[in-house]
């Protein structure tokens, strides 16, 4: 194989597999021979979500795969992503960019572009180049691993040792709600008889939090929310803390 052909083949294969796409119908005229792809053994890669015939533009969709559009929360850029999902297992196989999203493709595809045309735009069909191939960064490609991270926290954790000891135990959602709302001596098992005020005790729009310092506002300001990254939770939290509970003490991720 000539060096030039090898480089072209490498670039095309990397681009195609990054998109979860297969490419068929390549002839010698294209100067890129990829005979045998995507019929390679499964051990060499994932099943492709669709193939595009570079000559005719024919698109074949793999009905075993579901593709869902979403937004990457790997950082604050909020790039568009397409999640490739195995229909049988429901597991995300990989993430790629969304060609309709301005942060993934330049130019982005107009919204009225059909899905079939979007697959063609991913490919070299029509000799348009790969400007619509739709990319996300390395972190964006790997963010779906958070979903399957064995360390992912999926249940409330309650402190099970001295503050700073790093000891926590899982509790039920019912216990979380009960103790957060009603408060009380919730750490007696640690030998701590401190009465912790629950939401019910500190909720009041009529009483001042400190009558000697009325500028500190109502008692409800005793609820202080300090955010982490947004991940879609911020809007719910703002609605509860600011609008429902009536505390002004809502701080964002960078609100130090
Ligand atoms: S794809 Fe990369 S740049 Fe875009 S939001 Fe995700 S992590 Fe940020």
TrEMBL record:
Signal peptide extent: 1-18
Query: Entry's SMART domains?
Result: Molybdop_Fe4S4
Q: Which keywords annotate this record?
A: 4Fe-4S, Iron, Iron-sulfur, Metal-binding, Molybdenum, Oxidoreductase, Signal
Domain (4Fe-4S Mo/W bis-MGD-type): give its ranges. 64-151
Name of protein: 4Fe-4S Mo/W bis-MGD-type domain-containing protein
What is the source species? Alkaliphilus flagellatus
Q: What is the lineage of its organism?
A: Bacteria, Bacillati, Bacillota, Clostridia, Peptostreptococcales
């Amino acid at each position: 194989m000539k060096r030039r052909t090898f480089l072209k083949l490498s670039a095309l294969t990397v681009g195609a597999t990054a998109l979860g796409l297969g490419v068929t119908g390549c002839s010698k005229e294209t100067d890129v021979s990829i005979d045998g792809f995507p019929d390679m053994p499964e051990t060499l890669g994932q099943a492709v979500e669709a193939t595009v015939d570079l000559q005719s533009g024919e698109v074949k969709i793999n009905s075993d795969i579901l593709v869902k559009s979403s937004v990457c929360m790997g950082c604050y850029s909020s790039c568009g992503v397409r999640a490739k999902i195995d229909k049988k297992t429901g597991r995300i196989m990989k993430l790629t960019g969304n060609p309709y999203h301005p942060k993934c493709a330049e130019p982005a595809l107009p919204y009225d572009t059909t899905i079939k045309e979007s697959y063609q735009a991913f490919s070299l069909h029509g000799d348009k180049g790969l400007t619509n191939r739709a990319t996300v960064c390395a972190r964006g490609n790997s963010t779906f691993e958070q979903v399957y991270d064995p360390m992912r926290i999926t249940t409330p954790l309650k402190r099970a040792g001295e503050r700073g000891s790093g000891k926590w135990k899982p509790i039920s959602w019912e216990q979380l709600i009960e103790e957060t709302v009603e408060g009380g001596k919730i750490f007696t098992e640690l030998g701590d008889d401190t009465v912790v005020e629950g939401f019910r005790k500190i909720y009041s729009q009529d009483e001042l939090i400190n009558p000697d310092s009325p500028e500190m506002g109502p008692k409800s300001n005793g609820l202080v929310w300090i955010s982490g990254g947004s991940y879609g939770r911020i809007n719910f939290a703002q609605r509860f803390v600011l609008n429902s509970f009536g505390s002004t003490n809502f701080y964002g991720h960078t609100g130090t």
